[in-house]
Amino acid sequence: MIDLEERVNRVFNPDLRPLVSEAYRCYVSGSARGAIVLTWTAVCADLIAKAQILHEEGESHAKDLVADVERAQGSAESEAIPIMLALERTLLDTAEKLELIDFTQRKQLERIRDDRHLCAHPSIRPLSELY
């Protein structure tokens, strides 16, 4: 079986490798919350990059996602953040429609997303009970 470090080195998109590598470093150093947050970020970046490739190849279902990303990239930060938050809420729906993921993978990614929310928003729980 291939180990986790080797999987990090095999990430297909070279632009994503540093992000995945950072998530891995958090994991091995015992920073589980940081690893979860960065893993979700890498998942989002990967799905967006794949949707952009599909859009370039003429896939019409990727059009809205790519347009939203481009709109966010061309906006001021105060406008870009709400655009990306909205995109993130529907990203797994879009990825499933584009057949980038299947139903089982979607459920697994929903779990990572939900864990990310619990890790990144400590105000959900009392401060002494961090997720």
Description:
- This protein is mainly α and 131 residues long.
- The model has no long low-confidence stretch (mean pLDDT 91).
- The longest helix has 25 residues, at 32-56.
- It has helices at residues 4-9, 17-28, 32-56, 63-73, 77-97, 103-120.
- It is globular.
Describe how the helices and strands are arranged.
Elements: H1 4-9, H2 17-28, H3 32-56, H4 63-73, H5 77-97, H6 103-120
Helix pairs in contact: 2-3, 3-4, 3-5, 3-6, 4-5, 5-6
Low-pLDDT segments, ≥5 res: none
End-to-end C-alpha gap = 30 Å
Average the pLDDT over all residues and give the rounded result: 91
Question: How many strands in all?
Answer: 0
User: What composes the largest sheet?
Assistant: none
* Helix and strand element order: HHHHHH
> Share of helix among residues?
over 70%
**Rg over alpha carbons:** 16 Å
Structural class: mainly alpha
Keywords:
globular
In short:
The chain has helices at 4-9, 17-28, 32-56, 63-73, 77-97, 103-120.
